[in-house]
């Protein structure tokens, strides 16, 4: 199967590192024009140069901080005025770890703003153009915690579930317009976030970080962490015309770790 996204523009959030960066690169390799969005302009420029080395599809970037939903709204609404987005990839770094019983109210509010509220703002900005062109793909990068909560990630587990149900509801509403809304649930992936989680757990438990990683690997039937590109390949497929009849689902990409179907 050859996936060709020529003529399509993808807006990829959190695209300066990790899974978001990998998705932006794979979208470009499939001939999409990519708009990066993040808060660090220098990092955005670095990724933009990588995309420009792949092809000359008028790749762009916009700057927004997802901890400030009002700023995100202003920036994205201005950008989408007169320019439509075919593919929206919602991807934001997860909340810090910790027991849910210890979580402060502010942690929930901040996480909901950065994930659920910003996702909603972005979708509302992109949907008019998608409806007009009768083509749209909204892909949310969430977590396997949607199916099976992960110990020590209380705020994240709660927020991810909210995003999943928002996504499912939206998928039903926009399906008649040729728009699909799906979620990718990455398992343990070699990113800065994974390193941070492992280091924090090592500090709290007093064990070496290598022991923490070994324990994490023990839970993965594949016996290894995912590469960000392996998540990106799934995103590219879901963004394609070939995936037009896949809608409102959660796709775990976790090496078999999730115990439930």
Strand order in space, largest sheet: 3-2-1-4-5-6-7
Q: How would you classify the helix and strand content by structural class?
A: alpha/beta
Helix-strand topology string: EHEHEHEHEHEHHHE
CATH topology call of the largest domain: Rossmann fold
Overall body shape: globular
The overall pLDDT, averaged over residues, is 95
Polypeptide structure, described:
The chain has 261 residues and is of the alpha/beta class. It has two domains: 9-187 and 227-253, Rossmann fold (3-Layer(aba) Sandwich), CATH 3.40.50.720; 191-225, no CATH class. It contains eight helices and seven strands. It has helices at 18-29, 41-54, 69-80, 105-133, 154-174, 192-205, 209-218, 228-239, and strands at residues 9-13, 33-38, 60-63, 87-90, 136-141, 179-186, 250-253. Strands 3-2-1-4-5-6-7 form a seven-stranded parallel β-sheet, with helices on both faces. Strand 5, helix 5 (154-174) and strand 6 form a beta-alpha-beta unit. Helix 1 packs parallel to helix 2 (41-54), helix 3 (69-80) packs parallel to helix 4 and helix 4 runs parallel beside helix 5 (154-174). The two termini are 26 Å apart.
Outline of this structure?
The chain has 261 residues and is of the alpha/beta class. It has helices at 18-29, 41-54, 69-80, 105-133, 154-174, 192-205, 209-218, 228-239; strands at 9-13, 33-38, 60-63, 87-90, 136-141, 179-186, 250-253.
Keyphrases for this structure?
261 residues; alpha/beta; Rossmann fold; seven-stranded parallel β-sheet; 48% helix; 14% strand
């Amino acid at each position: 199967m050859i996936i060709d996204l020529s003529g399509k523009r993808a807006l990829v959030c959190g695209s300066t590192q990790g899974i978001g960066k990998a998705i932006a690169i794979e979208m470009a390799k499939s001939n999409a024009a990519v708009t990066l969005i993040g808060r660090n302009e220098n990092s955005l420029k670095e990724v933009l140069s990588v995309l420009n080395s792949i092809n000359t599809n008028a790749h762009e970037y916009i700057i927004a901080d997802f901890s400030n939903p009002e700023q995100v709204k202003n920036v994205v609404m201005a950008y989408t005025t007169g320019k439509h987005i075919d593919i929206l990839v919602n991807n934001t770094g997860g909340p810090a770890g910790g027991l849910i019983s210890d979580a402060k109210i502010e942690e929930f509010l901040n996480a909901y703003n950065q994930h659920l509220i910003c996702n909603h703002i972005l979708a509302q900005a992109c949907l008019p153009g998608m409806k007009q062109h009768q083509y749209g793909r909204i892909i949310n990068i969430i977590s396997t915690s949607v199916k099976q909560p992960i110990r020590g990630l209380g705020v994240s587990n709660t927020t991810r579930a909210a995003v999943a149900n928002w996504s499912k509801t939206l998928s039903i509403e926009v399906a008649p317009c040729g728009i699909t809304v799906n979620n990718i649930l990455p398992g343990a992936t070699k990113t800065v976030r994974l390193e941070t989680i492992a280091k924090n757990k090592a500090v709290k438990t007093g064990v070496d970080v290598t022991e923490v990683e070994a324990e994490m690997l023990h839970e993965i039937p594949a016996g290894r962490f995912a590469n960000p590109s392996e998540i990106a390949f799934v995103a590219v497929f879901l963004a394609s015309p070939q995936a037009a009849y896949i809608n409102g689902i959660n796709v775990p990409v976790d090496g078999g770790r999730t115990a439930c179907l």
